[in-house]
Input
Amino acid sequence: MANVKLIALCALILGLSLPLLALPKISYSIASLAVPGSGELLLGQTTRGATMLGIDIMSFYAYLETNKEVDRQINNYMHYAQTYADVPYGMPKEQYQAVQDYISSDFFNDRQEMMARNYFLITYYEPEAYEEY
Output
């Protein structure tokens, strides 16, 4: 995450400092490729360049905020599972999905018993292994 911010900052500084140089025509395309809108600013099309640069900044901000919101939602469902289902906080995501798939612990236990019965008694007919399980 810090690398993305550093790259964006460097690209912004580069894009804003390029007008100080005498540039060949290809430089405008390269500048616009690095930071969309900077090529237009270099060519003197300030309205178009500022609009594109503003949209880029807003898009980058929305991306960062979306990642923060995803982290908040993950934290919320972990707390919810801890509070209402006694699932320890910080378990792997698969554990939370398994908890979500069953209505209650009785339903989960009944399903496990059925799966063991199918495996040990019906498939391999090993009553001793079923009893041990």
Remarks:
- The CA atoms of residues 117 and 123 lie 9 Å apart.
- The chain has seven helices and no strands.
- The chain has a mean pLDDT of 84.
